[in-house]
Write a structure and sequence with these properties.
About 10% of the residues lie in helices and about 40% in strands. It contains 3 helices and 13 strands. The strands form 3 sheets. It has a 6-stranded antiparallel beta sheet, covered by helices on one side. The two termini are about 30 Å apart.
């Protein structure tokens, strides 16, 4: 089985389905290939850091994005449990600025998301101990990270009401998209 790549509804974001090979021993999953990502994005993409987060059910993380040059592109997948991942276009001047798209990522459906510089994302853990794994193009620099409130009513992300949400103090006090744009906090890159 070959990887399947499809564009998300705004420039710079792709959904990538990867092959899983199963036999009597279990399974082997090829979750990232440089050539597949390169073909989708049109550029050679080199991960510079890898990390993961583990979240309890109902934990809502993000929206986060890196500002400045270079920006940070991300490749994310859910290795355990299930999450709803909302990708948000945070690039002023983009025709899709402020729009979001949601995908469920889970351990059973070998799907990853590639997000170009300037695209933010947030995710809601749907299960206990969901593990989201990231490959990123630039090491994490907290001073360049901007957080937008994932519950910003102007964004209107449709999180499922049946999942009670828990946010960190940093996410609870994150600014709205309108405030981030007005104060010049958003990435300057264009799609």
């Amino acid at each position: 089985m070959a990887a399947h790549v499809s564009a998300l509804p705004f420039p710079g974001a792709w959904k990538i389905g990867s092959p899983r090979h199963e036999d009597g021993r279990g399974s082997f999953h090829e979750w990232f290939r440089d050539d597949i990502v390169g073909s989708a994005t049109g550029a050679r993409w080199q991960p510079r850091q890898a990390h993961w987060s583990v979240s309890h059910r109902g934990v809502l993380r993000g929206i986060s994005v890196v500002t400045g040059t270079p920006g940070q592109s991300k490749y994310v997948t859910c290795a355990r449990g299930a999450v709803l991942d909302a990708v948000v276009d945070l690039r002023p001047g983009s025709p899709t600025f402020g729009r979001w798209h949601m995908e469920q990522l889970d351990e059973d459906h070998d799907v990853s998301l590639y997000l170009s510089e300037g695209l933010g994302h947030a995710f809601l853990s749907l299960t206990a101990n969901s593990m989201l794994m990231y490959l990123v193009s630039q090491p994490h620099e907290p001073a360049r990270e901007v957080r937008i409130q994932a519950l910003d009513p102007d964004l209107g992300i449709a999180w499922p009401p049946e999942v009670p949400v828990t946010q960190s103090p940093k996410d609870l006090t994150a600014c709205s998209l309108a405030d981030a744009e007005r104060t010049g906090l958003l990435p300057s890159c264009r799609p």
